[in-house]
Amino acid sequence: MVKNSDLYKNKTMLAPMVRVGTLPMRLLAVKYGADLVYCEEIIDFKILKSKRIENAALGTVDFVLSDGTIIFRTFPEEKNKLIFQIGTADAKRALKAAQRIQDLVAGVDVNMGCPKEFSIKGGMGAALLTQPEKVKEILTTLVNGLSVPVTCKIRVFQNLEDTLKLAKLIESTGVSAIGVHGRTKEERPRHANRNDVIKAIAETLSIPVIANGGSKEIKVYEDIAVFKQASGCSSVMIARAAEWNPTIFRAEGKLPLLDIVKEYVKVAIDWDNNWVNTKYCVLQMMHDNMLDYLEGDLTQAAMSMEDISEIWGLKEYYLRVRNNLARKQADEKESEGERISVVTKDDGGYRICMPLRFEKKDFSIKISPKLKLFEWTKTKNISKPVYITTERTEDRNFNCVLQLNNNEFTTPYWEKSKQLAEQASAAVATTVLDIVDGRIEEPSEQLEKCRVQWLGLKIDKNLINIDNGNQKNCEKGKNSDISQTVKRKCDTDADDKNKKMCPDEDAG
Q1: Exposed end of the chain (fewer CB within 10 Å): N or C?
Q2: Is residue 114 annotated as a catalytic residue, yes or no?
Q3: How far apart are CA 110 and CA 94, in angstroms?
Q4: How many Å apart are CA 229 and CA 90, to the nearest integer?
Q5: DSSP per-residue codes, 7-40
Q6: Over residues 372-390, mean pLDDT
Q7: How much is the pLDDT for 498?
């Protein structure tokens, strides 16, 4: 049974666009008249690897990878207008991923038209167009397994008969609508959109057909209706014309470019959007005009959200929003118990887990916690630290446990590199042992918070046995043969909670 086809009838939509369809652009499109908005394509693997987090500070739901990368952020109030586009080449995996987000969206769309190399190499996007059995399996599995309507977006073939054959097969799976970009996978925006082919599909199918690919024809709001009539479709999906100015959805006409770019930056600040993504979207909005304006030239050189906000006259606003958000996040983390953990081991040593990440900007040039800790052990004439680094095979991220005599120092985080993980564990040790480790006078809030929190525990560092027993290990450089070992562990079955736990010393 087809689910809620009416959702896709007589609508104007923001098309799915990589790096553009993030929360700020979606919210602006809705504000200015879009009936539905698609997020950027998100690969099923990423959804399955991510952790779902209720972000109380922002009021959003975030899907976050173990390295802190946010792959999908949504605000509950957009739910009834939001279509989640998934990239997949496997029916079962697609279903598992889509089930994780279905309560947050109005519908799920499968990307079967992206011509980009990364998508095709993975068997996704336009690669599916020539695999009808896989198309049928993926869509049927999603239709039967989800509570929200399912659609897909395709490109056309050179041959009309082949296009109609695929469209009919897609309709037979029970999808609620089909989006059609009127170009082949080999064609690019400079080629004319095949509106006549889209019209033939619309005349053949009984479900709504959504026309896409007409941005060259859509310059003002009234052009949307012209494109809709030319393609004979129920609805229109707009990509580049909306990317350049989301007020294309505004019946009263588009707003001036610089005004809308500034508004976009403001919305990006409000929702703590990644500065790299914000910069990309701003430059895409200005596209051919960026060099005509000083703001465009300056934005190209921007290296932070603060830089971008200053260019667009929003620096004070940015700092005010950041300070408010930082306070909320600090309160949230404290309430969640993200605090230092001190456990006494069976051998009398301590295992200290501190919520600390190594950031190079917190330390002087050519100085690091590892180096300073090593120098400290030499002055104390004790054995050097041993770094036991574990690589998690599912995402190739690292966690390190630093051993110093019978004490262990670690963090709850998994880092992108072995070096970052080891430096973080060393920073924990230097913080605990009060070693001058080269950190700058005004370190990051996280580093300073950990230091203050540790001092607040009032644990006598002399009780942390460093010297006793280590002299014996230094005989003939016994410890010099101990390399920084990397143990690979396969923990793909670990649940989200276990992924953030401090690893045991014998994890393997």
Answers
A1: N
A2: yes
A3: 9
A4: 36
A5: GGSS-EEEPP-TTTSSHHHHHHHHHTT-SEEEPP
A6: 92
A7: 38
